[in-house]
Amino acid sequence: MPLSPSPCTVGGSRTTDERTPRAIACALRRRGVSELAASLAAEAGIAVFRIAFERWISETSQPGLPQLIRESLDELKAVTAGK
Question: Model pTM?
Fold first, then answer.
C-alpha cells in the first residue's frame, strides 16, 4: 500500500514526535529521495538516535554518543538483514 503524500509543512497541531520525522523525510524528498525511502529513513534514523541517546544518558560507563549511534545502527542493519 503506497504512502499517502505528506505535506512538507510540519507545524499545526502535531506533536514534536510527529513533526520531526516528517521534517526529516521532507528534507530527504527535496534532495531527490523517493517518498518511501525518505519516510523509512526518517523513522529509522529517529529510532536509532532515540535508542542510542537513552543508553547514553542511562549508562555512564558506556562509550560516547557517536559510538552508541553506530552500535544502534549496526543492530538495525543486522535485524533487517535477518541476522
Answer: 0.73
